[in-house]
Amino acid sequence: MQSNEDPELSSLKAILIRHGITEVIPVRNAAGIGWARKRLAGEGTYKITRSIVRQIMQSRGLDPTILDAYQASRRSSYEPGTVHGAFTIERIIPPTLERPHRMFEVRCQCGARMTRWYGEILKNRHGCKACYTKVMIARWSRTEEVPHDFWRRLNLSAEQRGLAVTVTSVGLWELFTRQRMTCALSGVPLTLYATPGDPRTASLDRIEPEIGYLPGNVQWVHKDINRAKQMFSQDQFIALCRSVAEHQATLSGQGLHESHRSATSCDDTKA
Length: 271
Ligand SMILES: [Zn+2]
Hints:
Shape: elongated
Bound molecules: zinc ion
Strand order of the largest sheet: 4-5-6-7
CATH architecture of the largest domain: 2-Layer Sandwich
Number of strands: 9
CATH class of the largest domain: Alpha Beta
Largest sheet: 4 strands, antiparallel
């Protein structure tokens, strides 16, 4: 989500309004910041030069160097090496006609490098997406319940299938942390609280499918595992997975996979 708000323009506007100048508006242009003035009658604005802005300020008894000082301080505060929240600026990318504002090559606290405009540097105090996710997980790890939508859906579908639910939302969260937020069968990490780009993968499995959601009969598994397991008991499923894995190991031990692969790649090169 890209916000249209330009923090530098808003701050400049605020300075002018504070000095009683409401008809002059700073605008973003290819050179950085330009100026416009509200029409005396009707809607809209017209462009004015920097020297007219100075004249207006002087006519109100203001020192026009306020703006110069302000803009200089803004520029220097984004010099390479300066730190803004989780980001350190490494390089300034000057504006172009297509992109009328400066961009910054920044380094996140985690060491990752990326390009940001300063609106994003100001807003993302937690850093890059990975760091932000970490902060959110830390926040949620204090949570003592499963997500509300998950809990509601679980109860609804159990009711429709005539299954008893005697576990609690708190109990399920405790089980999730006891499982170290990983799948009980495959050990892969699970997501219970989804974030943009990181959908929920945790799924609640009944060990004995005929029995409802009772303490001791539930475990957190990856949703793909749950789907694959559906028609089997846990023992049958594990036995099935084991024979697949063992057979595959035997095949690669005999080099069958290798010969098959090289045969395929030969075909590829011919085609
Ligand atoms: Zn980061």
